[in-house]
Batch of 3 targets.
Target 1
Amino acid sequence: MDLTNRLTSWSPQVLSILRIASALLFMQHGTMKILDYPPTGDYDDMALLSIVGVAGILELFGGALLLIGLFTRPVAFILSGMMAVAYFLAHAPRGFFPVINDGELAALYCFVFFYLIFAGGGAWSLDALWRRPGERLVAAERD
């Protein structure tokens, strides 16, 4: 087996690693806003039903769903859209280039989540575990 085929055979597992790592990093934004951990003091006066509060809820609970790979595609759709909105509301008005307007992370999360809409959760996800046996065979042949 050549190197390309060997690497390609690991794609479903590496997709899961991308999903898990992205979810863990993304959830930190939600824990900071909702649970005040790690404590920064930035969100002490935040109303839960404000734009930032709702973003924190989506970051925390949407990130948790992505972490375990449950409802990956619809959750990724919502989070990708949320990050696009965050970029255009909070970052784009401060300049065109993401490196200047501090929007790199929002843009990157937007496109990672956009990819997950189409790719799914990967081999190590509850979505993959809960597929019917016939669907698992078809998915394994396709992957």
Note: The chain has a mean pLDDT of 93.
Target 2
Amino acid sequence: MECNKPKNIKSCTCTYEPCSRKGLCCECVEYHRNNGEIPGCFFSKSAEKTYDRSIENFIKSYKRN
């Protein structure tokens, strides 16, 4: 299966601009999984902007909502 970066980037909610994985979802998931993190697209808009991709922050952000 080939990556459709142009299509993916249109719906990518990550605001970290220097990210080389924008629109490359499988690379993004692998990168964050290897770092014990969750990709930014799983977070609410406000939580994503903190750039804290930790599992703890993900859980906290959803407990507040």
Note: The two ends are 36 Å apart (CA to CA).
Target 3
Amino acid sequence: MRVLGVDLGTARIGLALSDATGAFASPLTVIASRGRANDLARIAEVVDSNEVGQVVIGMPTTLRGEHGLAAQQAEAFARELAEQLGVPVTTWDERMTTVVAERALIAAGERREHRRDTRDKVAAAVMLQSYLDAQRPGAPDAAGGPSD
């Protein structure tokens, strides 16, 4: 089953997709945020066109493990998406994923002006891979664990 990872942002939404076995995450695309209804519709199109069986939304938890306004918005988005899609939608701790993505892009020699276009989908892949790894039988709980 393919799993879609979603890294919500106010301007851009990063998407990552697992392989058919649900073992490996890869960056997919970045979509420009154009309002809740449009964003939900665009994600629904990606789910349909890629035969996605589950969606994982990054939960923007603070380093202290607290949920602020961004986390409340992510939870509301996840609820609306679940109602629209008919596939399971869950949230997963995304702490430090953007930092990890940025460092990986720098290490790969990506120029600053191109990193912005790539960072969000790489962050989505980092978050999704964390989720996938934690779902494997016998896997220890991931740092932060699920947030739903």
Note: The CA atoms of residues 39 and 82 lie 13 Å apart.
